[in-house]
Amino acid sequence: MELRHIRYFVAAARERNFTKASHTLNISQPVISRLLRELERELDTVLFLRQRSGLDLTPAGETFFQHARRILNDCEEAVKATKEAGHVRSKLSIGFIATALASFLGDIMRKLTLEHPEIELVMHEMPPGDQIVALRNII
Amino acid sequence: MELRHIRYFVAAARERNFTKASHTLNISQPVISRLLRELERELDTVLFLRQRSGLDLTPAGETFFQHARRILNDCEEAVKATKEAGHVRSKLSIGFIATALASFLGDIMRKLTLEHPEIELVMHEMPPGDQIVALRNII
DNA sequence: TAAAAATACTCCATAGGTATTTTAT
DNA sequence: ATAAAATACCTATGGAGTATTTTTA
Prior knowledge:
Two copies of one chain form a homodimer. Chain A is built from six helices and four strands; from the N terminus they run H-H-H-E-E-H-E-H-E-H. Chain A has helices at 3-15, 18-24, 29-43, 59-85, 98-115, 128-138, and strands at residues 48-51, 54-57, 90-96, 119-125. In chain A, a hairpin with a 2-residue loop joins strand 1 and strand 2 (54-57). The model of chain A has no long low-confidence stretch (mean pLDDT 87). The interface between A and B is large, with 36 and 37 residues.
């Protein structure tokens, strides 16, 4: 089972119609039909009652529907929360001299921003004496 | 994103090692490597710190890990609950005569068991008179 | 009969594999 | 020097498409 199965199932269960669901999903009707049969086979259960009057969910289908919606919501939430966690949440100001940048600072900066994209670097090139003054002004 | 991405991510996050995770998943190491990069690209975030001293999760990785475990649990739960909902939960005893079986009963039985696998049919062939007696005995 | 689902194929995108290189300690 | 991850490339499974048939109210 993959999320695709769950997404297609939820669309079909909502629309109560494979053909309509295939339109909202931008795929062809046979794809839904085949994939949902695959799902039913994997779960060893009939999920839909295919009637000309429209699709209906079996008790098993209803059960799966409840869980499926929750899973899709969780996935959205996971993506959103993870993206947020990776966003800028703090700034790090660094006073530096050009020689440090060439020797080691560049490498460190690259690693830091790669591994911690949530930290935004603000670089200030200044002579060591000015750096001390700047630090004292912060504190 | 598919469940595959989440499964591989969780394995890698648990083992803190792509190679070991690939063994537990019975796939090759490059497959995990490629798929998890794909995931990071989709989420537009770095999830792992690849260090020789071992893998580590970034804050974003930790966030995704929490959600990912929950999603996989929900999936297992969904499958289990759905299978249970489709299981036999009730028996339906039907007294019948052979002619009914040939004319319509067979078709009805087929549909019923297909659409409601949770109902177990118990068929009793008996003359109409006996059917009435049997019904009275139940009530 | 008509509308929807199922089936039969074809195709190609991509998951997965092997071999190798790169990286970092 | 070494262990692990990344890269390059290849193969093949199966996801997706079109055309058609089957079902059922």
